[in-house]
Amino acid sequence: MSQEPEEVGVDEELEEIKERILMALETVIDPELGIDIVNLGLVYEVDFAKDTGDTIIKMTLTTMGCPLADVLTENIHDALAEVDEVNKIEVKLVWYPAWTTDRMSRYARIALGIR
């Protein structure tokens, strides 16, 4: 069954908003590593409800018990304030799957000297 043209437009708009959310998250720098949380692979999922603007960021940290969780959460709230469609923001820390350097982008690997 094919999608109606209106549904395709809604999907494209939703993806565009999610892309802007990810771009905003790229401004959130991990203070210990000096690389943004997206390129470090810490952001696992972005859920955005177009009708309410509610946004849930599912992410992890490089280590459990990392003392920077509150700092990163605050920086995420600040960064997403720049995305007009975002209303309520919830940051959910998840520990599965566990973060490894395999989740890092090529850029982050080069910046940190990891092969």
Automatic annotation (TrEMBL):
Highest rank taxon of the organism: Bacteria
The protein's matches in InterPro entries, at most eight in alphabetical order, are given as: Fe-S_Maturation_MIP18, FSCA_dom_sf, MIP18-like
Its signal peptide is: none
Q: Which Pfam families match?
A: FeS_assembly_P
Residue ranges of the MIP18 family-like domain?
18-91
| Gene3D superfamilies per the UniProt record, alphabetical | Fe-S cluster assembly (FSCA) (3.30.300.130)
Q: Which SUPFAM superfamilies match?
A: Fe-S cluster assembly (FSCA) domain-like
Q: What is this protein called?
A: Metal-sulfur cluster biosynthetic enzyme
Taxonomic lineage is: Bacteria, Bacillati, Bacillota, Bacilli, Lactobacillales
